[in-house]
From TrEMBL, chain A:
It comes from Neobacillus citreus. GO terms for molecular function: CoA-transferase activity. Signal peptide: none annotated. Coiled coil: none annotated. This is CoA transferase subunit A. Keywords: Transferase.
From TrEMBL, chain B:
It holds the Pfam family CoA_trans. Keywords: Transferase. This is 3-oxoacid CoA-transferase subunit B. The keyword Transferase applies. Belongs to the 3-oxoacid CoA-transferase subunit B family. The lineage of its organism: Bacteria, Bacillati, Bacillota, Bacilli, Bacillales. SUPFAM superfamilies: NagB/RpiA/CoA transferase-like.
Amino acid sequence: MENPFRKITTLEKVMEFFHDGMTLMFGGFGGVGTPPGLIDGILEKGIRNLTLIGNDTGFPHIGIGKLVSQERAKKVIASHIGSNPFAGQFMHEGKLEVEFSPQGILAERIRAGGVGLPGILSDIGKDIELVAGNKQRVLLNGEEYLVEEALTAEVSIVFAKKADEYGNLIYDKSARNTNPLVAMAGAITIAEVEEIVPLGALNAEEIITPGVFVDYIIPTKGVNWKWAWE
Amino acid sequence: MGMGVDIRNKLAKRAAEEIQNGMVVNLGIGIPSLVPNHLKKGVNVIFHAENGITGMGQSPIKGEEDENLCNAGGFPVTLNIGGSYCDSTVSFGMIRSGKIDITILGSLQVSQKGDLANWIVPGKKVPGMGGAMELAQKAKKVIVLMNHCDKQGRSKIVKECTMPLTSRECVDLIITELAVFQVTDEGLLLTEIFAQGNLEDVVNKTQCEFAISENLKEIPY
């Protein structure tokens, strides 16, 4: 494989971007679409005090859930933690701060971060105290909206089906979920992919994430957890 | 939910009657996921899953699951012909812009005004709202399937919700193992009672007052 953009690298090389106390954004929904090799790499390097941003906290042994259940996170920004009992337990014990955001609004906050917007206006939960809280309100055409702040991260990790040498990505079925958004919102974005193909091998009309957003590409060894339904 | 299979299917069957040809429908996890089994023949429905599936199909045959094709509850599904995948912003774009005709959800409490409380179990669990706030606030019709009473025998249909709200005044139809209520501007309207039930039982087990339809029907199953 040619490597004209120097983006294709190894798990060992990209691990230098991970450090204690960092903000990490991850793709995936219930573990589906979360990069397994990168999660294990972070675990093995012993990274702690992470602020995690993503759809949910996975299951205890699946997806981002591994980092949560092994107490590597100090804070998560997510829409749902119900499938990972450790997240709830640590939250009640005061070991884990959880910021809940309605699922589609969370996705839009990530997208906003990725496309250079400071935030979005939303009417979701504007009369629900646990969502509205102290958020700034804006009047637009006679309607009141909440200002929902954009989200970005030091590093974003995503899981894709194929990458070409430039980092153009396509995903696999519902494993796309939050990955294209997360891919845009990291200062550094690392894609773990099932297959790396030469430039030109992907149909330009079918590329979901342009390689402009992708800094590094590593090959995956595949999903190494048993799905919750198995 | 601690409900027998027969009762779960009874609720799912009644909910399926609300679905008309061509509708876009989002199903919550649990009993709502049984609804597709009860659709009448010839009713074509576009099932939407918030993790980015439009045109979701049935569960796969055991052994043919695709690890990258699951519904929002993480269970393996299939894609119908003409279906598509999208990212979460597009999926929720459909919800917020009013493209979802019906969402069918479970709940902990529903008030007589149609307030929905289904994302926090006080003192026990805070699973998070997931996509429920957007679905409840923006779907054209919100149907709740739930037990009439909780495990302590307390009515889940209440004057005012005591549990944290998911969305205010959003529920249109409540289906329990005893009865069906419409949420109207004047409050709840009892429209149907399931076979072998009786009105007295429904009155005794419902915390708030409700009107009774002049055309009160018995559901035969």
